[in-house]
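Appendix B, record 7
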Amino acid sequence: MTPTPALPAHPTPLGPVGLVLLAVASVQVGGAFAATLLPTLGVLGTTALRLGLAAAVLLAVARPSLAGRTRQDWSAVLLFAAAMTLMNTAFYGSLTRLPLGVAVTIEFTGPLVMSAVLSRTRRDLLAVLAAAAGVLLVSGALRVLLGGTPVDPLGVLLAALAGACWCGYILTSARTGQHFAGLDGVAIAMGVGAVVLLPWGLPALGTALGRPELFATALGVALASSAIPYSLELVALRRLPARVFGVLLSLEPAAAAAAGAVVLGQALRSDQLVGTTLVVLASVVVMTGRRPHPAG
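Structure tokens (predicted):
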């Protein structure tokens, strides 16, 4: 998301770095618990329920005004909604076939490659090559050459699609941030995504309401994956340079591997852990090498 302008903010016990780290952990724990919903609610049902519940919370908090919006406003937020909805659907689809840490690592290469391409430096190119080697290790492609068994190829493709959509999400998020203040654009986009997935969302909601433990998990996923991290990042970005913010987000693959191991019991192999580490380090290299852009 595009950093918000610096505003006076009350200090928090965690500080801005702590808030971002908490947001990263929250997103990945939310992803881990979302994986537990998929066998019962399905990919589209889980996505619809996550977006719908998160939208209900964010709309209640942000209370965005819909009146007087221009055609450009709606164009920006609808493209944002499309990128967000497809990204979440593809990602949850990958979780039905891949461990959480593997899916996030592959997905994360999307924005990493985009950042490197935009900067076009030799250092970032080398970082991307290191990340590519990391993905080969995580996906198990090298194990095939050695006679081993790879991870699910469709799962890899879905995670890669989620990564491509993440690039679109970043670009459309920045544009939406120019048309909507605070959480308004995110709340509206989530609401639009939930409406699009309504045919799958209503049956999923009916199933969840019939089983309180499912509804509690779905609500927790919506809060942990959307409402909580977006709010924490919005506060943190008021007092944190964008470059530092990017470096902290680079920890997401590692956080996903940890969440998958703790919540789902998905321990990664040693070669997959090495691959995840390569992707994280490559992202840190790219983010620390970024030059700040003037606000426009």
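Remarks on this record: Residues 209 and 250 are 36 Å apart (CA to CA). The two ends are 15 Å apart (CA to CA).
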